[in-house]
Amino acid sequence: MRDLGTVVRGVRTPIIKEGDDLANIVVDSIMEASRNNDFEFNDRDVIAITEAVVGISEGNYVTVSEVSEDIKRKFKNPEVLGIVFPILSRNRFSLILKAIARSTKKLYVQLSFPSDEVGNGILDEEKLYRSDYTLGSVITEEEYRKHFGDFLHPFTGINMIDFYKELIEKEGCEAEFVLSNNVLDILKYTKNVINCDIHTRYRTKEILKDGGANVIGLFEIMTEPINGSGFNKEYGMLGSNKSTEERLKLFPRTGQELVEKIQKELKEKTGKMIEVMVYGDGAFKDPVGKIWELADPVVSPAYTKGLEGTPNEIKLKYVSDNKYADLEGDELKEAIKEEIRQKEDNLKGKMITQGTTPRRLTDLIGSLCDLTSGSGDKGTPVVFIQGYFDNLASE
Questions:
Q1: Mind listing the domains of the chain with CATH numbers?
Q2: Mean pLDDT score, 195-202
Q3: Which ranges of the chain would DSSP assign to H, the alpha helix?
Q4: DSSP string of 225-258?
Q5: What does the H/E/C string look like for 176-193?
Q6: Each residue's pLDDT tens digit, 280-317
Q7: How far apart are CA 127 and CA 119, in angstroms?
Q8: pLDDT tens-digit readout, 246-271
């Protein structure tokens, strides 16, 4: 009888550098971990690799100047630019902002409020709700500084308008900020606009275009190489991270080739069909800081076919409290096991699934992996998961 359900292990690897054969490193590391820690492989085990080391190994980097050159090309050397809805992140956006500032003489920055799309606050919400402003208001930079300018992010202790303004002006560019949740307000200042939002990017661009803007999405910048640089055809600058003060690592572009190669090599070595995926940010929200973790455009940009779809699970509590309310002990357990064995192929929308998580498998597993590996110094860029697809009836 099995005593364990899902088991998750962070797997240590050598430090990944540009040009490394990541597939071989992952396979060798997981095989060595198996030998040293006495575990065997099964069909539908999952191996996940953080997108950071995928991007590093493939050398998918760009410089601030290369990004700036692409922006200048696309807008034909604009003297004035506007950006809408950038996230408030030194790691994620500061170098992109530096590149944008380097591309023009004056930059209008429109921020959403009370927070950006991933939950980073820009002002004190209690002050906002006690003020005469509403979520439909336009707050100028002068008004912001008068009424909300003492706001500091609770985790970083930084006021991001101050940080961003200083960064822009260091590039010799004039900066003006405005807070508004109506994307069309940027058109009061300029028609040349970069929409910087992540998960609502297509809708935002469409609204701006219909409003008469000359608009390019952040996802459309660095979609092709500049002078041999890195690029990402699908996501552009989305999912990028600061590498140095003048260099960014882009979201990986060869992930699908990688996961399929690893799956094939592990099949040859273990005889098992192991699923493989690349993961970035998990899709979860911090209850204290109110930050939604997902600053990447997707949780998983690449995965093998066995990870497609959503869970097909029943809610054990619902079954035990209703259909088998009169049973107890082993009799109840066996009845529920049989219920699981006989469940339909697709239970979506049925009452018996109420309370199960209606999310894609890659989003759920990717979030599990992100929490396991963290973003600091654990040194486990590979996560090995066993038993994720098992249930109470699995023996």
A1: 7-59+252-311+357-386 (3.30.1330.100), 61-249 (3.40.50), 312-356 (no CATH)
A2: 97
A3: 22-37, 51-57, 64-75, 90-101, 125-130, 141-147, 160-170, 201-210, 255-270, 316-321, 329-341, 361-373
A4: -STT----TTTTTTT-EEEETTEEEPPPS-HHHH
A5: EEEECCCHHHHHHCCCEE
A6: 998 888 777 777 778 999 999 999 999 998 776 566 56
A7: 17
A8: 999 999 999 999 999 999 999 999 99
Angle between helices 64-75 and 90-101 (to 10 degrees): 50
- Largest alpha-carbon pair distance within the chain? 76
Q: Is the pTM of this model over 0.90?
A: no
pLDDT for the residue numbered 359:
78
**Residue located via tokens 């060869």:** 254
DSSP 118-164: TS-BSS-HHHHHHSS--TT--EEHHHHHHHTTT---TTT---HHHHH
How far apart, in whole angstroms, are the C-alpha atoms of residue 304 and residue 46? 10
The whole-angstrom separation of Cα 243 and Cα 229 is 14
Is the pLDDT confidence value at 334 over 70? no
Find tokens 């990986």 and name the residue. 252
